[in-house]
Design goal:
Helices cover 48% and strands 24% of the residues. The protein has helices at residues 2-20, 41-57, 67-83, 96-103, 120-129, 131-138; strands at 27-28, 34-39, 64-65, 85-86, 110-117, 144-153, 156-164. The strands form two sheets. Strands 2, 3, 5, 6 and 7 form a five-stranded mixed sheet that branches. A hairpin with a 2-residue loop joins strand 6 and strand 7 (156-164). Helix 2 runs parallel beside helix 5 and helix 5 (120-129) packs across helix 6 (131-138). The radius of gyration is 15 Å and the shape is globular. The chain starts with a helix and ends with a strand. Mean pLDDT is 86; it is low at 1-22.
């Protein structure tokens, strides 16, 4: 029980940092109940569906799944899980734009949403309540979506949404 309280205290103390973190920052993470990173496909599908539900509420067409974007999202989630960091820029200064360029994927428009949360419902709510993340979800420019979810510990999960035209 004291570990759960300590975990919650750390999360609460990190919250203002995470909200204030720019695209040039990354946050180093220490897992409390780590395990080998695991893909959580059921949560990926749920997150994909939640994005399209939010778009439907705004009268926007659904995004279509894109395998290239999903693989890109998975690489991002696994890299963060393995590297114990969270952010659009990795600890070596490699940015979202750098990763996208080096992947060989070519789009006129691309955007990325990241969350580190306990489950899909909480991650989705965080995206919907964040003005920048919500703007990516309801932007009319993207037509494709790639999603990946990777758990690095019990309740320590990376959520990645990649949007493109």
């Amino acid at each position: 029980m004291s570990r759960v309280i300590a975990f919650l205290a750390v999360l609460v103390s990190l919250l203002p940092i995470a909200v204030a973190a720019s695209e040039e920052d990354s946050i180093q993470l220490a897992y409390f109940r780590p395990h080998r990173p695991q893909i959580v496909a059921v949560e990926s599908r749920a997150l994909f569906n939640d994005v399209n539900a939010a778009r439907a509420q705004r009268g926007l067409p659904p995004l279509v799944p894109d395998e290239g974007l999903s693989q890109f999202a998975l690489q991002v989630a696994q890299q963060m899980a393995d590297g114990h960091y969270f952010g659009h820029t990795d600890p070596n200064g490699v940015t979202f734009q750098d990763r996208l360029r080096s992947s060989g994927l070519r789009y006129r428009f691309a955007a990325e949403n990241l969350a580190f949360d306990q489950d899909e419902a909480h991650a989705n709510q965080a995206f919907l309540r964040s003005p920048g993340h919500y703007a990516n979800i309801v932007d009319p420019l993207p037509h494709k979506l790639g999603v990946a979810v990777v758990a690095a510990g019990d309740g320590e999960v990376f959520y990645v949404e990649e949007f493109a035209d």
